[in-house]
Specification:
The protein is α+β, with helices and mostly antiparallel strands. Helices cover 27% and strands 32% of the residues.
Amino acid sequence: MKKTIFLCALLTMIFSANVLAQQPKTVTDYFLAFPTDKYATDIEGKKITGKANLAKFRKSLIKVEDVKNGYLKLEGPWEGWAEIALFKKKDGSYLIAHAESGCGPVCDGFVKFYTYKAGKWADVTSNVFPNLTEAQIKKAFTDKKIDTTDSGLNSYFLLPQTGTTIKLACNECSDAANDFVLMEFAWNGEKFTTKK
């Protein structure tokens, strides 16, 4: 009986250590662990297969790798860019933010949020980020005195390399070379709230 209890305890410890060893630790680890349907197609549209080939391809997309601040900027065979950022939750785990911006000639984009536990990804966007309506985005343009008659509501999200504020921006909204910020969203350890 003692041998059975010891064996069960040993197997539990081995299984737990294996699960912990698989948990990503850095923003790069999380990016490399993304599901195989994301960032898995080469410039010719061919699916990249094999764990080593996929990791090599994904690493080739990284243009800014700031592990200390939990931030990646990606560029690849598309017009625009993508960003990955980690936000520390109150329980010590991470929320993984993924923003993509496509351009040509104006930029438009989205942001999604995920958790990752024991090898499983969960989309938690609706739980942690405001569900922006077209009316709210239009009001942000109007509040900044930007005419949307010709350009529409083209906007994209900028993840922070430092800090914890996400920005909704527009590249056509001013003559300046910088992104024009329409709205900002602050992280409080559980969710994002709209800055006033």
